[in-house]
Design brief:
Strand order of the largest sheet of chain B: 1-2-3-4-5-6-7-8
Number of strands of chain B: 8
Number of domains of chain B: 1
Radius of gyration of chain A: 17 Å
Shape of chain A: extended
Number of strands of chain A: 0
Oligomer: heterodimer
Order of helices and strands of chain A: HHH
Structural class of chain A: mainly alpha
CATH class of chain B: Alpha Beta
Largest sheet of chain B: 8 strands, parallel
Number of helices of chain B: 9
Distance between the termini of chain B: 16 Å
Largest sheet of chain A: none
Radius of gyration of chain B: 17 Å
CATH superfamily of chain B: Metal-dependent hydrolases
CATH topology of chain B: TIM Barrel
Number of helices of chain A: 3
Distance between the termini of chain A: 45 Å
Shape of chain B: globular
C-alpha cells in the first residue's frame, strides 16, 4: 500500500460535514425542537466526537441504537427513523 | 477493473444502469428478493416475482452482456403476516433448481418483532433442509444493532448452518466485528445517506481485514448508486491501496463466497 495522508484526502470534506452538523443544531434550536427524541439522541452522539473512544463511528452508531435485547411484540411500522425513541415512547414522526 | 455486484435489485433499475455497470467492469449481478415498496396481497404475487427474478431478469441482463444470479426469500417487511409467509416459504423450493438461483435471501429482520423472528427461523430452516447459501439483511438505522444480535443468535443456534456459507449484509462499524467473529461473511452496502460511504467501508477493510468482506451497492428504487462498488474501488486506489487488493475485495472475495453454490460460474 502506498499510504496517502488522511488529512490531505479528507480534511476539507470532514470540515464541510462538521459545519453542516453545527448549522443543523442551530436550526433545530431555532425551531424549538431540542426536546424531540431524535434531537436528544443527536446531542448524546455529538459528545462522542470529543471523547477518546477508538471507534468513534461505532460508538455514534451505538448511541442511536435500540439497546434492548428482546423482540418487540409486533411491528407497527416498516420504517426506521434513525434514533431509538425509548421504551414506551412513540416512534411516530411527522415527516 | 473487473468486479462482481453481489447485491443489486435490478428489477427496479433501468436498462441504462446495466450498460453503465458493464462499462465499469461488472461481470455478474446478484439479485436478492426484496420488498416491492408495498405488501403483496397473495402468494401468487410472490410466484410472479420469483419468476421475474429467475426467468425474465437474467435474459434482460444477458442482453447487456452481464450474468444475472438471484436469491429467493421473503423480506422481513412482509413477515408480520405469518400465514402468508409460510405459504411463500412453501413456494420457494420449486424455484431452487433454476439455473441462476444461488440460495435463500435476503432474509432477516426489519423491526425485530416476534413474527419477523419466527419467519426468519422458517427461512433458515428452509435453507438448511435444501443445503442453500444464505444472504441476510440486517435492519436499518436504530434497529440494526439489536437485529444483528438476534439474527446471529438464530443462525448460531441451528447446528446445520455452516457459518462460511452465510453472508450478513449491511454491516457498519458497530456490527462488523460481531459478524466476523462468528466465522460468517460480512457485506458492506454503499449508500449515499444510510449504511456506508466508500471512505467508511475502506476504513473497515483496513481495520478488520479483507478475508470475509465484500462490497455492494444494493441499488434499488430508493436513493442508491449502481456504480457504488467501482467508485469505492477508485477511492481505494486514491487512498493508496494496490490494484491486487482492490481486485480481491471487489471481484475475488464475492466470487469465493458465491462459488460455494456450483451454479455460480463466470
Amino acid at each position: 500500500m502506498n499510504q496517502q495522508p488522511m488529512l490531505d484526502l479528507y480534511f476539507l470534506e470532514a470540515r464541510h460535514q462538521l459545519i453542516e452538523v453545527a448549522a443543523f443544531l442551530d436550526r433545530v434550536e431555532r425551531a424549538g425542537e431540542t426536546a424531540d427524541f431524535r434531537a436528544r439522541a443527536f446531542a448524546e452522539a455529538v459528545k462522542i466526537l470529543g471523547s477518546p473512544a477508538k471507534n468513534k463511528a461505532g460508538e455514534v452508531l451505538r448511541a442511536f441504537s435500540d439497546p434492548t435485547v428482546e423482540p418487540i411484540a409486533a411491528a407497527t411500522t416498516k420504517a426506521a427513523c434513525g434514533a431509538w425513541p425509548g421504551r414506551g415512547e412513540s416512534q411516530d414522526i411527522t415527516n | 477493473m473487473r468486479y462482481i455486484e453481489p447485491h443489486a435489485h435490478m428489477v427496479s433499475r433501468v436498462t441504462d444502469d446495466y450498460d453503465r455497470m458493464v462499462l465499469a467492469g461488472c461481470e455478474a449481478v446478484c439479485e436478492p428478493a426484496f420488498w416491492a415498496g408495498y405488501d403483496r396481497s397473495s402468494v401468487a404475487g410472490f410466484y410472479d416475482y420469483f419468476s421475474q427474478l429467475t426467468d425474465y431478469e437474467p435474459k434482460r441482463a444477458a442482453k447487456h452482456g452481464v450474468k444475472h444470479f438471484s436469491w429467493l426469500g421473503l423480506n422481513s417487511k412482509e413477515a408480520e403476516d405469518v400465514t402468508l409467509a409460510a405459504e411463500v416459504v412453501a413456494l420457494i423450493p420449486q424455484f431452487l433448481d433454476r439455473p441462476n438461483v444461488l440460495g435463500i435471501g435476503e432474509i432477516g429482520l426489519n423491526k425485530n418483532s416476534r413474527n419477523e423472528l419466527r419467519v426468519l427461523e422458517m427461512q433458515v430452516d428452509l435453507a438448511a433442509r435444501h443445503g442453500q447459501l444464505i444472504l441476510v439483511h440486517t435492519p436499518h438505522l436504530e434497529d440494526k444493532l439489536k437485529g444483528t444480535r438476534l439474527i446471529l443468535d438464530v443462525l448460531k443456534s441451528d447446528r446445520r448452518i455452516r457459518p462460511e456459507r452465510v453472508i450478513i449484509d449491511h454491516v457498519e462499524e458497530h456490527t462488523v466485528a460481531m459478524v466476523l467473529d462468528t466465522g460468517m461473511w460480512a457485506g458492506m452496502t454503499l449508500y449515499p445517506e444510510t449504511k456506508c460511504t466508500p471512505a467508511r467501508a475502506i476504513d473497515m477493510l483496513e481495520q478488520y481485514g479483507q478475508e470475509r468482506l465484500w462490497l455492494n451497492s444494493a441499488c434499488d428504487w430508493g436513493r442508491s448508486d449502481p456504480l457504488a462498488v467501482p467508485k469505492t474501488a477508485v477511492e481505494m486506489k486514491r487512498r493508496g491501496h494496490l490494484a491486487e487488493l482492490v481486485d480481491q475485495v471487489i471481484y475475488q472475495n464475492p466470487g469465493r463466497f458465491l462459488r460455494q453454490c456450483p451454479k455460480f460460474t463466470l
